[in-house]
């Protein structure tokens, strides 16, 4: 009986001594989980910042082209002849297409960004080509008098 009490007493002491280690271990695990959570939030924030930077850059490129179109359209309105009106219509169509692409870029989610970015790049390249063609085709309208 004494031996049994002795063994139970030793087991109780061992359990008491291991409890603080378990608590410390639990605290350590909790701290590690919190740190991992913070790192995950940071990574998500960085990815979000990168996405927003890419969106802003794409929108700036398209807005720059729209500004050129607006300036050219204003010059054409001053002339008022048939060829100027035709050129203005073509520019307005291009501008509407670019504005639509800007709206799509603004609304793009992270998982659809790659396809949206490709589409925006295609529109930007197409607009550059069309702009160059337009300037070539209607160069006589933009000569300084």
Automatic annotation (TrEMBL):
Domain of life: Bacteria
Location of the region described as Disordered in the Swiss-Prot/TrEMBL record: 73-92
PROSITE patterns listed in its UniProt record: PROKAR_LIPOPROTEIN (PS51257)
Protein name: Lipoprotein
């Amino acid at each position: 009986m004494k031996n049994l009490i002795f063994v139970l007493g030793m087991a109780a002491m061992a359990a008491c001594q291991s409890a603080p280690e378990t608590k410390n271990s639990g605290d350590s695990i909790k701290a590690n989980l919190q740190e991992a959570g913070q790192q995950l939030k940071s990574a998500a924030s960085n990815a979000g910042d990168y996405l927003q930077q890419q969106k802003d850059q794409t929108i700036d490129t398209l807005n720059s082209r729209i500004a050129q179109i607006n300036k050219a359209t204003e010059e054409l309105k001053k002339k008022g002849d048939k060829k100027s009106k035709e050129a203005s219509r073509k520019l307005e169509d291009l501008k509407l297409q670019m504005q639509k692409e800007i709206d799509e870029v603004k609304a793009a989610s992270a998982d659809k960004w790659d396809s949206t970015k490709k589409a925006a790049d295609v529109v930007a390249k197409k607009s550059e080509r069309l702009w160059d063609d337009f300037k070539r085709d209607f160069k006589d309208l933009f000569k300084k008098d």
